[in-house]
Amino acid sequence: MVDVLDGAPVLSCLGATQQTALRGMKARVNILEGAIRSGKTIVSLLRFLIAVVFARGGAIVVVARTRDSAYRNVFAPLMDPALFGRLAFLVSYNSGAPTAKILGRTVHVLGASDAKAEKVLRGLTVALAYVDEVTVIPEEFFTQLLGRMSPPNAQLFGTTNPDSPAHWLKVKFLDRIGTDLVGWVSFHFTLDDNPGLTEQYKLSIKAEFTGLWYKRFVLGEWVAAEGAIFDMWDPDIHTIPWDDLPEMQELIAVGVDYGTTNPTAAIILGISAEHDGYGRPRRRLFFVDEFRHDSKTAQQKLTDAQLSERLRAWLDENHLPPSTGTRLRPRYVILDPSAASFMVQLHSDGVTAAQADNEVLYGIRTVASLLAAGKLLVARPTTQNPDRGCPGFIAEAPGYAWDPEATLKGVDKPIKVADHSLDGGRYSVVTTERIWRSRIDFALAA
What we know:
Layout: H1 16-24, E1 29-34, H2 40-54, E2 59-64, H3 67-78, H4 81-84, E3 91-92, E4 99-102, E5 105-111, E6 126-131, H5 139-148, E7 155-160, H6 168-172, E8 184-189, H7 199-208, H8 211-218, H9 235-238, E9 239-241, E10 248-257, E11 264-272, E12 285-293, H10 295-298, H11 304-315, E13 332-335, H12 340-348, E14 353-355, H13 360-372, E15 376-380, H14 391-396, H15 404-408, H16 420-431, H17 433-436
Parallel strand pairs: 1-7, 1-8, 2-5, 2-6, 6-7, 9-15, 10-13, 12-15, 13-14
Antiparallel strand pairs: 3-4, 4-5, 10-11, 11-12
Protein name: Phage terminase large subunit
């Protein structure tokens, strides 16, 4: 079975759990679940490559929440010679493209970001499917996919981190394996199941997750989201006086959460130019300044044109203290994806805004992990500069909580109250991740 992968470097570093899964993934549906960085994705890709050679009678599909995430989590590893040796050169995919080539076979790459996505499956007969992060795929899509797997010996390989114990995947499928559900197998992974991780790296991962994320992504537990989202938040640890901000390498972006009756909030994300005692880069992210207009508090509802004028005037101000010796303007304007009219207004006023990545849970998790790891700090107003810093973010962070009604339905969803600066900050962090991730020492992984 492993002949097709002869010489692949990854074969030499499989742990006992990966080897058991590789041998055991013979069912119609094979699910690997558990902690991040536990080796489940790599071994599932190994098994998927073998299955590609033998798939007959229908299409081969790779499914992820978006095609970008399919590239990041599936194709990037497959095309890495350090993992798959010469086979990596037999896999080709451009991020966002509808098809890929694997071992000479055409593979359909499907994004499943909402319930309507199941329409793309209609008409397909599926012989082989790989599903990245099953729990973020809509149930309707997954059910449709199962129904399309009609050829004899059709198989599905899926990976996921744990989610709510009430999630449809667990309740309707995983909990029934071994009882009345046939043709399914699952394999559980923990962080320690990956022999390729150093103890130092494991400690870093454990330090970067707290609360819910620690239980799910480190311990591999299916636990409900409840209570505070940023349960690690401590203003004494996570804020810095605006006057004490370090020199910034650049102000990467301003994230804008647009409101009409609700406040409009904009948060500037910067990356520092800090170095350690040996002169090595020690960069961190900072929310350096904030714009807010609350029509209720101000008793004045602004038109899009008026709001654009005020935001642009604020962007032209100096957002860094004189001690840094720099005056920078954010490189990008990242806008709430629902704010179509405001985007048009900004464009007419000469400001090109990019639509924010609004993958809410990933964004919350990323911001929370950055805070927990000490890689993201928030500037607070000072007596000397009371109008600078991010008071809205600081005020909203402690009360940001999971919606208990959504939790009962197996859905992780924040309560949509007093989250405007938080959303603006999340937009700026997640949408510019490709820019800052390579510059700071941060190991968050899926």
